[in-house]
Amino acid sequence: MPRPKNLTPNAHLHITIEARLRSRLDQAVWSDLEGRIPAGGLQRFVEARLREYFHDQRLDLRQWILGADVVSGSPTTIAALVKYLEERK
């Protein structure tokens, strides 16, 4: 039986990253059970991180907290955090 057609087309991506970063990426997706990086492991990892990046919102906390930085999270979490911080201003 032939494989069903992919409803969402894929696009090829070729990137070059720092060797140490690639090593950490390989460790993050490594499977001790398989003794290797599973087929599609890198793709699933990168796609999940990109979805998080585009879904999450970022909030600069410096206007509320001295020495703070930027945090990221779901829109609901960021909205709740802003509400909390504004109430304590």
Describe, in plain words, how this protein is organized in 3D:
- The structure is a single chain.
- With 89 residues, the protein is mainly alpha-helical.
- The protein folds into 2 domains: 37 residues, no CATH class; 31 residues, no CATH class.
- Helices cover 44% and strands 9% of the residues.
- It is built from 3 helices and 2 strands; from the N terminus they run H-H-E-E-H.
- It has a two-stranded antiparallel ribbon.
- The chain is elongated and about 60 Å long.
- The termini are far apart.
Question: Which key phrases capture this entry?
Answer:
44% helix, elongated, single chain
Query: Oligomerization state of this entry?
Result: single chain
| Average pLDDT, all residues | 93
User: In order across it, which strands form the biggest sheet?
Assistant: 1-2
Estimate the strand proportion.
Answer: 5-15%
Name the overall outline: elongated
Task: Count every beta strand, where a strand is a DSSP E run of 2 or more residues.
Answer: 2
Low-confidence stretches: none
Helix content: 40-55%
- Backbone structural class: mainly alpha
Topology (elements, then pairings):
Blueprint: H1 19-29, H2 41-55, E1 57-60, E2 70-73, H3 75-87
Antiparallel strand pairs: 1-2
Task: Please summarize what this structure is.
This protein is mainly alpha-helical and 89 residues long.
